[in-house]
Amino acid sequence: MEVSIPSLVAAILVMAAPLVLAALGETLTEKAGVVNLSLDGTILLGAMSGFVIASESQSVLLGFIAAACTGASVGAVLAIIGVRLGQSQVAVGFALTFLCRDLAYFLGNPYARQQGPQLETLQIPILSKIPFLGEAFFSHSAIVYVSLLAIPGCYYFLYHTRQGLILRSVGENPDGCWARGINPLRVQILYTVIGGGLVGLAGAAFSLAVKPGWGHPQGCEGIGWIALALVIFGGWNPIRVAAGAYFFGMLQLLGIYFQDYFTTIPPQIFQVAPFPLMIFALILINLGHKSRNQKLTGWIKLFSGRPPNWLGKTYKQT
């Protein structure tokens, strides 16, 4: 099967779009010092709610709104229990993951394997006609454009706005923020909800665009855990996090293409291969930090960063 470079780039952008949204949402949440481990279940619940609402209303836009609200609601539960009430964020996140997953398959069962609306390709006038670039970057559905714009938007917000500075400050030193009149809990709750909304949006991107439809299995299982790993892989930097998402999307796509070339190898091997490769990449980063080889350490630093100082800790206002 011959594949042109523009079509390959376009396919990678499509495959990685939901992962970019989920990883950026978790980046915002973790920058505020909160760990949200409910991503995998939230993506499934968002995919289900988005598909169901879009099918009932025949409006893809309402489907995406419903999915974002679903993700925000899950984030709100984590924010109330794990942030406001000071319970273990890790434990709450794990519980929400399995709860959301089971809810998604139970509530969405009547809609399994049914046809529903999906996003259509939205070619950008003039730009879509540019050789190579037009097919690769300007002939996608709206959610792909949203994921592309979210990368510089998230970076600019974090590092070039006052609110972004407040967010990062809360993740580093909530006591200092409280002393300057900033309510750390309010900031953490806000960005846990916003981050959850982006994760829910990622779920709808699967069921309404990338892998249209709903069923069991949906095909996006495990993506939430990859998004969590990408936040670490990218050093809590939106641009590097997104780069990791596109790398994983490329691995998934190559796995699909390799199935046609290596027909004697079970296809399940290619389907699961991207996951251990991402784990291997994280191991290399960890080993690079401990290495005394300056050249190796220098390369590793390009793909890593220091976690927020208050990440996962419970803040109690005095």
Q: Secondary-structure map with pairings?
A:
Elements: H1 5-31, H2 39-57, H3 60-84, H4 89-107, E1 122-123, H5 133-137, E2 139-140, H6 142-160, H7 162-172, H8 174-179, H9 184-210, H10 223-233, H11 238-261, H12 267-272, H13 274-290, H14 294-301
Antiparallel strand pairs: 1-2
Structural class: mainly alpha
Walk across the major sheet and give the strand order: 1-2
Number of strands: 2
CATH third-tier fold name: ABC transporter involved in vitamin B12 uptake, BtuC
Provide a descriptive summary of the structure in words.
This protein is mostly helical and 318 residues long. The chain has one domain (5-301): ABC transporter involved in vitamin B12 uptake, BtuC (Orthogonal Bundle). It is 70% helix and 1% strand. The chain contains 14 helices and two strands. The protein has helices spanning 5-31, 39-57, 60-84, 89-107, 133-137, 142-160, 162-172, 174-179, 184-210, 223-233, 238-261, 267-272, 274-290, 294-301; strands spanning 122-123, 139-140. Helix 10 (223-233) runs parallel beside helix 13. It is globular, with a radius of gyration of 20 Å. 41% of the residues are buried.
